[in-house]
Specification:
With about 150 residues, the chain is mainly alpha-helical. It has helices spanning about 10-25, 30-35, 40-50, 60-80, 115-125, 130-140, and strands at about 85-90, 95-105, 110-115. It has one domain (about 10-140).
């Protein structure tokens, strides 16, 4: 069991998984469907964010949306590519660490991304596009062929 000052990566991962399964269920995607195919949530999630009155959002709404999208992005990468949560030291945060997703790309190199940062990038390029968000993460981790490679 981790010390009080150490991050609990297992609890972090389980909490994120529970969050996105609850979101899927709320959006009409049964948990068993989502857990079998994480792409099954894309249409419902896109419809939800497209209809959300973003211009009326309060800070707490943005925080919740950010957390939900971050959980989806991470869980998608975990399910589809075998990615995993890791803890990275970061003295710039109040906790002294941050949670990142690590995956091995098609080139055999292991890379890390911060799902929170990918979601922030998506918020900066409204409207929110779920497929674009996923593709950004895949590209950063080199999980798929990049345009121009292998030609």
């Amino acid at each position: 069991m981790p010390k009080a000052s150490e991050p609990d990566i297992r609890e972090w991962a389980e909490q994120g998984r529970r969050t996105i399964i609850d979101v899927a269920d709320m959006l009409g995607v049964p948990p068993e469907t989502y857990t079998h195919d994480p792409m099954s949530l894309i249409p419902a999630l896109q419809d939800w964010v497209s209809r959300a009155p973003l211009d009326e959002f309060e800070q707490s709404d943005w925080v919740t949306l950010h957390a939900d999208l971050m959980c989806y992005l991470a869980d998608f990468l975990i399910q589809k590519y075998g990615a995993r949560w890791q803890v990275e030291d970061d003295s710039a945060t109040h906790r002294g660490h941050r949670y990142v997703i690590e995956a091995t790309g098609i080139d055999g190199r292991t890379r890390r991304i911060d799902p929170a940062e990918i979601v922030r990038m998506e918020f900066a390029a409204l409207p929110i596009e779920i497929v674009r968000m996923l593709a950004t993460a895949e590209r950063e981790l080199h999980l798929a062929s990049q345009p121009g490679e292998g030609e």
